[in-house]
Design a protein that fits this description.
The complex is a heterodimer of chains A (about 270) and B (about 325). With about 270 residues, chain A is of the alpha/beta class. Chain A contains eleven helices and five strands. In chain A, β4, α9 and β5 form a beta-alpha-beta unit. Chain B is elongated and about 70 Å long. Chain B has 13 helices and four strands. The chains are: A alpha/beta (about 270), B mainly alpha (about 325). At the A-B interface, α1, β2 and α6 of A face α1, α3, α4, α9 and β4 of B.
């Protein structure tokens, strides 16, 4: 008798729950279909975005690192994946400074032209504002790649082509550096100088050296105008030691190469 | 008179269903599995916190950069690149509006879990109840008792169908509730009013954001539940048909299970076989349209998927009733 009543109870509960549930789910379904098929575009109900300055919320002037730019910034060729960005953080930490990697925003194959619009993205700006040290590596793809795959490249650009590439890229670089400084005026901005990736190839060495020297002069000039900006030269590192510093693709550094670059960068960082 | 007959038939089916304890098995499965998923998710979250602190913006930006990097690689199939391009644009949209796409909390966990569960996990649970609703009577021989009563056969079948639909609702609802209650233990019970973006219009690898709007997460869950429910109803009706057609319970479970799993495999590789989009099992991811995740095959839209599912469901209902009323049961 008892059992029967409790069974009936259970049935009643399940039945009413399922009827109510079905109605609820059905209305959810209708609502969803309407919302997907006839979306009412409105951003109402969105909490007001906090002020950009407020959300950056940096506590102190830190040595936190954000790397930005091309495959070198990303660390392509480094089997450990660290690149110079993470190695810089490690070196700074080893010296007793407090540092972490905010973001590594390096993208393979990036050119100065592609980097400019990136600087207007809120996520990129956020990462830059969080940093006390900004590492910038850009320009190599403007000069040497020019939309071509490195592996299939047979000759480096002619004198004239190079001249034009340097000219265009240098205007962009000046703009990039200015914009970076606007976004985060307090950060130490380090531009990683170009090296000649072809220094171990007889027929390309000379033309490459020439282009790199000219480009680095341009970069030096752009950075000189900036408070807190400097160039970390790398060309000399690779002049004689390219075989042991370059990775298998004969273009990007290997782990040892990145370590050497990182040491260069850290040597010039002001540690408060 | 007629009405009360139907109600007592349904009541009878309800009692049978409860006695079979299948629904409790479903609840038990949820109670065991959800904590496992929640725990795994929590471990992952802890790992992220170690790397990014509570700074979701950096994490999202890094996700954008990593995906951008993979776009440049020739080793990544074009199909994936399309997905990643869409993903990048959506993440950028979130950053532009300073909204965390993965607000930690029990509500977000439930939302993500349901997105993943809607095309395989929940259909499997529903199938577990639906696949033997008719065939079990045959296996146990009770169908003869049932059919010797002076009740018309279609009424018996209808009462079973209605009971099944009731349990579909119960399963979908309990999945949501259990998910929320358990994941709340891990992540806290907050997040009902956190904004979620919906309305991304996809065409190829482009995302049109003109129709994007923010909805509070509770409303999103409400819509999601509705869509999951529709998927559940379709799967239930199909399982129902199989259980009418096939005499053995084991066989009907295998048939349904195989087609559901085939669906999840096909969705991952069907992009080059466009006519696969007319199969019901490829269309089970209705919540994708809400989230703005690309559909497995080009040209699929919510309207299309609803039509496909609706047609399959309608056809299986017709088949079920025709066969059941004409079938020679007693042999």
């Amino acid at each position: 008798m008892m059992k029967k009543t409790s069974g009936a109870w259970r049935t009643a509960v399940l039945v009413s729950a399922s009827i109510l549930g079905t109605l609820l789910l059905l209305s959810g379904f209708v609502y969803a279909v309407r919302d997907v098929l006839y979306p009412a575009s409105s951003l109402a109900g969105l909490p007001a975005a906090p002020d950009a300055a407020e959300r950056a919320g940096r506590e102190t002037v830190s040595l936190d690192v954000t790397a930005l730019g091309d495959s070198l910034a990303k660390g392509t060729g480094d089997d450990t994946g660290s690149g110079f960005a993470r190695r810089v953080v490690d070196l700074l930490t080893k010296q007793g400074a407090k540092s972490k990697l905010v973001n590594n925003l390096g993208i393979n194959g990036l050119t100065t032209k592609e980097l400019l619009p990136m600087l207007e993205e809120p996520g990129v700006q956020y990462a830059l504002k969080q940093a006390g040290v900004i590492l910038l590596s850009i320009g190599a793809n403007d000069l040497f790649d020019d939309g071509q795959q490195l592996e299939t490249r047979t000759e480096i650009p002619t004198e004239k082509e190079l001249e034009k590439a340097i000219e265009g890229a240098s205007t962009n670089l000046v703009k990039i550096v200015k914009r970076l400084h606007e976004i985060n005026p307090e950060a130490q901005l380090v531009y990683i100088g170009l090296y000649n990736p072809f220094s171990d190839m007889e027929q390309l060495k000379e033309a490459g050296d020439d282009a790199v020297a000219r480009w680095n002069a341009v970069a030096m000039e752009a950075m000189a105008s900036l408070k807190g900006g400097r160039v970390a030269p790398t060309a000399d590192l690779f002049t004689l030691r390219a075989p042991s510093y370059l990775s298998g693709d004969h273009f990007h550094p290997n782990g040892t190469g990145y370590q050497a670059i990182a040491e260069r960068i850290v040597q010039g960082i002001a540690i408060p | 008179m007629n009405k009360s007959l139907m109600i007592s038939l349904i009541q009878n089916e309800m009692i049978k269903m409860i006695q079979k304890k299948r629904f409790y098995v479903v609840l038990l499965v949820l109670l065991v599995l959800v904590p496992i998923f929640a725990y795994a998710q929590m471990k992952q979250a802890e790992d992220k916190i170690e790397k990014y602190g509570s700074d979701w913006r950096r994490e999202v930006q890094q996700a954008i950069t990593d995906n951008q990097n993979s776009l440049g690689s020739d080793r990544v199939p074009e199909e994936w690149k399309k997905y990643r391009q869409i993903y990048i644009q959506q993440l950028k949209y979130y950053l532009e509006h300073d909204v965390n796409p993965a607000q930690p909390g029990g509500v977000s966990f439930t939302r993500e879990f349901l997105d993943n569960a809607s095309s395989l996990f929940i259909p499997l649970l529903i199938m577990g109840i639906g696949s033997d609703i008719v065939s079990s009577e045959r296996t146990s021989g009770t169908i003869k008792v049932l059919l010797t009563r002076p009740v018309r056969r279609w009424k018996i079948l209808l009462s079973k169908l209605i009971t099944l639909m009731m349990f579909v609702s119960l399963i979908v609802l309990s999945t949501f509730v259990i998910c929320y209650l358990i994941s709340g233990l891990f992540f806290g019970y907050r997040g009902f009013d956190a904004p979620v973006f919906t309305g991304f219009q996809l065409s190829g690898s482009d995302v049109d954001v003109s129709a994007v709007h923010a909805v509070p997460q509770w409303k999103y869950l409400f819509m999601q539940a509705g869509l999951v429910w529709f998927v559940g109803v379709t799967v239930a009706v199909l399982a129902f048909m199989v259980s009418v057609l096939v005499r053995s319970t084991a066989a009907s479970i295998v048939i349904m299970m195989a087609s559901l799993i085939a669906g999840s495999i096909l969705s991952n590789m069907a992009s080059s076989w466009a006519s696969a989009k007319y199969l019901f099992m490829v269309n089970l991811g209705l919540t994708n349209y809400l989230a703005g995740t690309p559909a497995p095959i080009e040209g699929m839209t919510l309207g299309f998927s609803l039509a496909v599912l609706g047609l399959w469901a309608a056809a299986s209902l017709v088949v079920s009733f025709l066969v059941f009323t004409k079938q020679d049961i007693l042999h």
